Amino acid sequence: MKNLQKEFPVLSQNTYLNTASSGLLYDSLLDYRQEHDLDFLIGGSMFRDHQEQFLNTVRKSIADFCGGTSENTVLTPNFSIGFNTILNGLEKNKKILLLDEDYPSINFSVKSKEFEVCYAEVNASLEENISEAIAQYSPDIFAFSLVQYINGITIDLDFLKNLKIKHPNLLIIADGTQFCGTKVFNFEQSGVDILGCSGYKWLLGGYGNGFLLFKEGVLKQLTPNSYLKTSLNSSYDPSYTNIRSRFECGHLDTFNFGSLQHSIQFLSKIGLSEIEEKIKELSTYAKHNFTDLGVLDKVAKQRNDNSAIFNIKGDQKLHNTLKEKNIITSLRGNGIRISLHFYNNKEDIDKLVGILHRYR
Question: Is the keyword Transmembrane in the record (predicted)?
Fold first, then answer.
């Protein structure tokens, strides 16, 4: 896997610990993009004659990668647009459980649409807090990020499966943007009803692409009756009026979704289980070093699950120092966010730790 680093030009000049902000463009994806636009250049409208057939292959690639079905896979420019479309199809009397300080694309979107909202606290007892909140508030929907973007806290997938068994009428909506591409995951076997994801982070798909996976029947349940009634009585082509078109209205960009498909195939060729193992190895190594230094977020220290994201003690000054040393991170919450992917190595962590030692 070490030779794969040569695919990523950014790594030749930087220690890149910032995939949680943006995944990297790589050589073979650039080649694909150039070929795509060359085909468009010389083909014009003829290039798009087979657009729908191509997009069907993209849906299948996503479904196969995530353990879903292509029939219940929807393409969307990003998670936020897809999630807001879901919310627009819900009755306003629904009560939605959120996690405090979760990603604004979730929490702000729900609050701004004036749903009744309740919260569970994100701390070392996250799963217990969720169970208690459900018992106390009886929400209709639970919407959350599988991995918290500030500190990398990850919800236990077995907990979600048991939660769905215990509360079969609870609609569980998960944002996998900081998750998909880091671990092997089977959507159909999970407790999640809807999985959404933007493709520009761990999936390395670049910007302007994402997807939603639905369990069987859920997509129809979230489509307003007015839409269903109008589509049934319409003489328009079904591609404009079917349930999927509510999310996929307008032209979809084959450049962006082709990039996502190319990256999914790229990751699949490496092997998602191998990527998971590499990230686990790096995360364990990083957590050990951060704990020894006393810089790790206290909640992360108390959790056994190591995601690809950590939040360490640090301020703007330290962030600037790291940037001067070509170590790329993000300021998030009360500290500095570190995020690791398969193209990182222990030497990257050692370089960071060496500066942290001197900075203390």
Answer: no
Asked if 284 and 247 sit in the same domain, the reply is no
Domain count, the chain: 2
Phi, psi angles (nearest 5°) of residue 45: -65, -25
Tell me: do 142 and 206 sit in the same domain.
yes
Name residue 115's amino acid: F
End residue of a domain, out of 269, 288, 318: 269
User: pLDDT tens, 294-351?
Assistant: 999 888 888 887 799 999 999 999 999 999 999 999 999 889 999 999 999 999 999 9
3-class SS string, the chain: CHHHHHHCHHHHCCEECECCCCCCCCHHHHHHHHHHHHHHHHHHHHHHCCHHHHHHHHHHHHHHHHCCCHHHEEEECCHHHHHHHHHHCCCCCCEEEEECCCCHHHHHHHHHCCCEEEEECCCCCHHHHHHHHHHHHCCCEEEEECECCCCCCECCHHHHHHHHHHCCCCEEEEECCCCECCECCCCCCCCCCEEEEECCCCCCCCCCCEEEEECCCHHHHCCCHHHHHHHHCCCCCHHHHCCHHHCCCCCCCHHHHHHHHHHHHHHHHHCHHHHHHHHHHHHHHHHHHHHHHCCECHHHHHCCCCCCEEEEECCHHHHHHHHHCCEECEEECCEEEEECCCCCCHHHHHHHHHHHHHHC
* Residue 284, domain extent: 2-26+271-359
Distances (CA, A) of 136 to 127, 168, 232, 355: 14, 17, 41, 46
User: Residue 113: what pLDDT?
Assistant: 93
pLDDT at 360: 67
Show which of 269, 286, 321 is a domain's final residue. Answer: 269
